[in-house]
Specification:
Helix 2 runs antiparallel to helix 5 and helix 3 runs parallel beside helix 5. The chain is mainly alpha-helical. 66% of the residues lie in helices and 0% in strands. It folds into 2 domains: 151 residues, no CATH class; 156 residues, no CATH class.
Length: 320
């Protein structure tokens, strides 16, 4: 994939040059006393960059009905915001470097994986009912822009801060949670891709590896890693900055109640709901938190529902 390497090198060069030029302009247009014309937390510039970045890819996707750039645009946007805020503030404290690197590793890994997958599959079925409806398609991209900006808030605030307290337990806990979450997501993605690419598994749902312990291990990993990022950011937060908890709450809510688990459960129920073995799989397999099937399958229904999030929403398309 030589074209991809060239694209990434070009993107990196353009972004570095652009950010350097932007910082020069901002410094030259500062108010008296050295205060930037932008807000101290870089909320405006990250919002502007996110909107412009997503809009540019939306034009490609909508104009060419081209699904291959959608997830790539979302994942790489996180990396751009983390690097942008780090370069603009230019303090490079250890905590800032670590969080920027963690977001970069996650974003690049996910972007390349999703790009490789969509190149194999050819199209994204999520957009089957949206490609011909510009308003629906635009709504998806608007939500994606809000998702990127909101979930990036903890790293944005850390990179914009002059506070640099010593490394604390919260940092270590956050980094560990990120590592466990990122590893879980990466392993789950590879296991499912390998399962789907095996002709022997055609017409089957994935229950291999981590997918035998939870129906959505990739989402469990993603939720865990973003809560880890938030926890690692807490030593820097003060006052109203604690509102950045909206980031992990937002990604958790989206995956649990909106475009994550509900959509995939409905799709799987529609496709496999008539199979007794699939119903047994759902009964014995946790929707999110990994647990041995022998444990989860024997838990009382109230424990599954109230503690492990086996919500009625996840069975709405399962007919009797």
């Amino acid at each position: 994939m030589v074209w991809l390497d060239e694209y990434m090198q070009c993107l990196s060069s353009l972004m570095t040059a652009g950010v350097t030029h932007m910082r020069t302009l901002l410094q030259s247009s500062s108010k008296e006393g050295g205060r930037s014309v932008l807000d101290d937390n870089y909320l405006a510039i990250t919002a502007i960059v996110t909107v412009l970045y997503q809009f540019s890819f939306f034009l490609i996707a909508a104009g060419c009905k081209f699904d291959k750039v959608t997830d790539f645009a979302g994942s790489t946007n996180f990396v751009i915001l983390a690097l942008l805020t780090a370069i603009l503030h230019n303090t490079w404290y250890f905590r800032q470097i670590v969080l920027t690197v963690l977001v970069g590793i996650w974003g690049v890994r996910l972007a390349l994986f999703l790009l490789f997958r969509i190149l194999q599959w050819g199209e994204d079925r999520r957009f089957d009912d949206k490609r011909e409806n510009l308003l629906k398609f635009a709504a998806f991209w608007i939500i994606q822009a809000v998702w990127v900006w909101t979930v990036s808030l903890p790293v944005t605030i850390v990179n914009a801060s002059d506070r640099n307290p010593d490394i604390q337990a919260a940092d270590i806990v956050g980094w560990v949670l990120w590592f466990v979450g990122a590893l879980t997501e990466a392993v789950a993605d590879q296991q499912k891709l390998a399962f789907k690419n095996n002709p022997a598994n055609k017409g089957k749902w994935c229950d291999a590896g981590l997918w035998g312990f939870t129906r959505h291990p990739n989402y469990f990993g993603e939720i865990l890693l973003w809560w880890g990022i938030f926890i690692a950011a807490t030593p820097v937060l003060k006052g109203g900055q604690w509102a950045v908890i909206a980031g992990p709450i937002f990604i958790t809510a989206v995956l649990l109640f909106l475009s994550g688990i509900p959509l995939l459960e409905a799709s799987a129920d529609k496709r496999y709901g008539g199979l007794a073995e699939y119903r047994r799989y759902k009964t014995r397999t946790s929707p999110l938190v990994p647990l041995p099937p022998s444990v989860y399958g024997n838990l009382p229904s109230w424990v599954k529902k109230f503690l492990l999030l086996e919500l009625p929403l996840y069975n709405s398309k399962l007919t009797d």
